[in-house]
Amino acid sequence: MKEASGRRRTVRISDVAAAAGVSKTLVSYALNNRPGVREETRERIVAKARELGWTPSLPARALSVSRAYAIGLVFEKSPEALASDQYYTSLMAGLQSVLSHSRYSLVTEVVESTEAEREAYLRLAHDGRVDGMVIVDLRQDDPRFALVREAGLAFVSLGWPPERTTMPVLVYDESEAITDVVKHLVDQGHRRVAQVVGPQTNAPARLRRELYQKRFREHGIDASRWIESDYTAAGGRAATAALLDADPRPTAIVYSNDLMAVAGMSAAFSRGLRVPTDISIVGWDDITISQYLHPALSTVTQHPFDDGKVAATLLLEAIGGQEFVEPVWMPNPRFVPRESSGPASA
Amino acid sequence: MKEASGRRRTVRISDVAAAAGVSKTLVSYALNNRPGVREETRERIVAKARELGWTPSLPARALSVSRAYAIGLVFEKSPEALASDQYYTSLMAGLQSVLSHSRYSLVTEVVESTEAEREAYLRLAHDGRVDGMVIVDLRQDDPRFALVREAGLAFVSLGWPPERTTMPVLVYDESEAITDVVKHLVDQGHRRVAQVVGPQTNAPARLRRELYQKRFREHGIDASRWIESDYTAAGGRAATAALLDADPRPTAIVYSNDLMAVAGMSAAFSRGLRVPTDISIVGWDDITISQYLHPALSTVTQHPFDDGKVAATLLLEAIGGQEFVEPVWMPNPRFVPRESSGPASA
DNA sequence: GTGGCTCCTTGAACCGGTTCACGGCAAGCT
DNA sequence: AGCTTGCCGTGAACCGGTTCAAGGAGCCAC
């Protein structure tokens, strides 16, 4: 009586063994599709297991095979920055869309300093909590690659890692979109263009800035007008204010994410400037809200959900032992002109 | 040689035992602060453990004590809806801010149907992957409570659960903010006010709609003008379009989240209406971008990060065996008037 | 000197799987 | 007939902790 109402007795592999009249070794072999089990016997065991509703105990399996059946994702970001940036949530959803069809789970951490990030990595690895990591937001001389290497963890890198590796790497080419943005602006007569960029310790942020500069120079535009910011709205607003203070004011500003671009528009409005009549604004990310803004934001679309899907798939393969030599090229980001960019003001 | 460069040998409890010259039982007792160990011996063991860099193996401990040392969070939402809604990401960050100081981790899942949600719950529970769940977005007759009860999992509910429970419950009172919004609108002469609400299978969405209606009626306003939508931008835009088609058009629309409100503004603009001159708009959530819009969005602020913090704290206590009888009242959401609401048009 | 008590310590079982090494048996080969 | 070979199946060890029941040492009282 007490038993029935109390903690539900879970069915063990030995229960299945007893019910099928074989040893638990054989049950294990049968259920893991190992050779050395007569087909007829295997079927009987599988049927019994299903009948009893057996599912493997994760901790037990984890203990004996030293696998966690989980992957980790650590965000080194302020909660504010994380929440206001859709990229990460979409990425997570993309990862999940693959994991939920496997027996793997996603363990996430949000930390607010590189020191805490380091600890999180060590903890996840040392505790045997995960079998692999998804590394995003690559930084200059990123210390995380050494961490995973030492911990013997598999990983997937979203962006070029600083060292050669046999783990999967996802990359894409932003230059095409950047070329399109610059062409779009130049065609509309813009000659004074400024940039508000992300933290320059962040490798992709740096690369993006350089690509923009290269294209600017090719069109004879002064490429030195850029301000480093932090991807937050407040940061974007402040940077924009500074840029608008310059005497020959820029006629266009390109931002490294939409959130800063929106805040930039707000800064422009509050000075009585019209967008795009007085100043053109181009973002990056294409967050949901961008197309509903007034004016709708010209920006560059990315595919974080797909990135997540592919990243999860490849990471699982890497955990399975597969080696990767070539990076995987993802579809390029694409420029989407909308209303916030137009002809340059006189 | 091969050993040294290969898989790093992790230090086990028996290594500590050998080094300290005691049995592994005693090491376990000492490290778990159990009574029955001489103080001097305990110190020696702890010192040795630290010296060797021992950390407990999670799977091993999980196996013997039937604890996962993790909590679960399942989102039943489209990736799109999840990504564009800051609430969830902030909630997650809040949970993490507590968990990272414990040995607990957060396991997240994103599913797109209630059937998949059910499977996710069963899987997390059955696999022994988590010790407790965070239940958000309560629905009418929410099936998740039965799931966790049957699985014997602890949980924390963000909102009133359908049944009596000894698990922690977080609640807050929206009526104050709603009273303020309605008063604000009425004071400015609004008599025709409409609502765009969230899915009415969602219990809090329903309650919010009813509270608004109650206040409307108290001021003699027709409370029947509401449209059910889905919290997405596309949904908000469509609902707004329908509302604006009505002949005596509403002079104000209140939305159940900011994303729909922004999309609603966009719909108004595209018909040549001005905000707030021709129509006032009030949102709900206060996402980061709201204050940077043009006009800045009048809305209601919530505290998802704090909710997460408190939820995690209480859930850990519940897992520890503590029982809760009274729900915990969180600070009330607060109305923040900005530029998108103003005097009613004639 | 012996019994009884407390305090500290330990061997062994257990959690629920995986896997290694071995054994029985029938078929194939010489 | 004797020996190898392959297939199928099993016992036992192992993963790294926790915990129960029992054992030894030291001390006190009778």
From TrEMBL, chains A, B:
> Could you confirm whether the keyword Zinc appears in this record?
no
Q: Which Gene3D superfamilies match?
A: 3.40.50.2300, lambda repressor-like DNA-binding domains
- List, for all copies, the residue spans of the domain called HTH lacI-type: 11-65
This protein's source sits in the domain of life called: Bacteria
Picking any one GO molecular function of the record gives:
DNA-binding transcription factor activity
Q: Which UniProt keywords apply?
A: DNA-binding, Transcription, Transcription regulation
Name of this protein: Transcriptional regulator, LacI family
